[in-house]
Specification:
The protein is mainly alpha-helical. It has ten helices and no strands. It is globular, with a radius of gyration of 18 Å.
């Protein structure tokens, strides 16, 4: 059992230590969504409407920055040495994803401190489900970043793909407009977009309107998407290890 959890815990700790040495990342990740939210919110006169979307954007930015480390680890040779170790591949993948997801979660909690500006009051007892929802979303987005980063050779290419994929996903997730006001193809895209369910889950835990789909459906889809991404990451790592050993 220790052969599985010890490598995962070691990689999780490594991600946190690396982040601690780059404290400016906190400001960069939190400040951009905060400015975006304040401009859009004050411009429309409704900060609360866009709050959950801005929080998810904070988590998304953190996941993007954190999973870049996969490309850096490949360049430095750390990724190869990690894959040829006797540790289970799923353990290694879990450690990387958990480390980056924890960082995204912490930065999401920092953004949560701005909830009173949106007129959102979170009771102390409500912090547990809210924090749990933020972590689940962090884990899912980090898993998505991991799968994409694994196939990339350059950070510039990674940024291009992430912007091309994640920003449109975020825009049609209910962050800017609700499913009820969407029309045609856009509404259909929102229905199959995993981030739609993440936004709805966050709205539900924060007692915000537009928590559609419902909480059970939202948490199920978000968790299932995260699990699929974890399994896909494990398969990619196993394939890479097989090629390296050949």
């Amino acid at each position: 059992m220790s052969s599985f959890f010890l490598p995962a815990a070691t990689l999780w700790q490594r991600e946190l230590v690396r982040f601690w040495r780059q404290k400016s990342r906190v400001m960069g990740v939190v400040a951009s969504p905060l400015v975006f939210w304040l401009l859009i919110g004050y411009g429309s006169g409704d900060l609360g409407r866009f709050y959950s979307g801005a929080l998810v954007l904070t988590v998304m930015f953190s996941a993007i920055f954190s999973t870049i480390s996969i490309i850096e680890d490949r360049r430095e040779g750390f990724l190869l040495s990690m894959l040829v170790s006797p540790a289970p591949r799923t353990s290694l993948v879990l450690g990387k994803i958990m480390g980056s997801a924890t960082l995204a979660w912490i930065q999401g909690l920092i953004f949560l401190a701005f909830a009173p500006l949106a007129g959102v009051s979170v009771h102390p007892l409500e912090l547990i489900p809210v924090a749990a929802a933020i972590f689940l979303i962090s884990f899912t987005l980090t898993g998505l970043g991991f799968v994409i980063a694994w196939k990339m050779d350059s950070t510039s290419g990674f940024h291009a793909i992430m912007n091309l994929l994640l920003v449109p996903m975020w825009m049609v997730s209910g962050s800017l407009f609700t499913m009820a006001t969407a029309h045609g193809v856009v509404k259909a895209i929102m229905r199959v977009n995993p981030l739609t369910y993440s936004i709805s889950l966050l709205n539900y835990t924060l007692n915000l309107p537009n928590a559609v789909p419902g909480p059970v459906e939202s948490v199920t889809v978000t968790a299932a998407f995260g699990l699929v991404l974890l399994l896909a990451s494990g398969i990619l790592a196993a394939q890479k290890a097989t090629k390296s050993a050949a």
